[in-house]
Amino acid sequence: MNIKLISTILIIFSLFNSDSNLSCEDFKKGSFHVKEPNGTEIYYTLERDENSQIETNMFGDKVYYTIKWINECSYLQKFDKTKMELTDEMKMVNGDGGMIIELLEVKNDSTIIFQSYVKNFKDLSLIKGEFSKFD
Q1: Is residue 7 part of a domain?
Q2: Is the pLDDT of residue 10 over 60?
Q3: How far is 111 from 131, CA to CA, in rounded Å?
Q4: Which of 13, 19, 91, 107 is the most buried (most CB within 10 A)?
Q5: Which has the closest alpha carbon to 129: 43, 16, 37, 63?
């Protein structure tokens, strides 16, 4: 095979696989829709920065979280008691160590698959879904 043909194949291959250049870092901050695993229904939207997150449901109700990044693709979130009054369930989740969110796989240039669970109760609380970035 000649060098030009190999180079052309590599360039074409890299164009079709450009999504692989994205990483968890690309999903640490921004505005997102959160969808069920099959991606059809939007549960809520969220705004995330390095240390906090605000979730808003379809009725406009907001839930505030603090965030602590564990590694590049996982973070611990707890309900933020300084910005809202916590329910007994929220207090229980915070008392059990909060929720772990693991960013698993970049699906395309705007979506990443995640799983979340209460830190000390993974088997009982595991949920999977998708974060899709929007502007």
Answers
A1: no
A2: no
A3: 6
A4: 107
A5: 37
- Cβ atoms of 110 and 30 closer than 8 Å: no
Q: Would residue 2 count as lying in a domain?
A: no
Closest CA to 25 of 51, 55, 50: 50
Domain that holds residue 86: 23-134
Q: How many domains does the chain have?
A: 1
Distance CA 112, CA 22 (A): 10
Q: Strands 99-106 and 62-71: what pairing?
A: unpaired
Token pair 């309900």 is at which residue?
Answer: 79
pLDDT tens-digit readout, 37-48: 665 676 789 999
Count the alpha carbons within 13 Å of 72 in the hemisphere toward its beta carbon: 7
CATH of the domain at 89: 2.40.128.20
Structure tokens of 38? 């099959």
What's the DSSP call for residue 135? -
> pLDDT per residue over 41-75, tens digit each?
767 899 999 899 999 988 899 999 999 999 999 99
Would residue 14 count as lying in a domain? no
Q: Tell me the backbone φ, ψ of residue 50, rounded to 5 degrees.
A: -60, -35
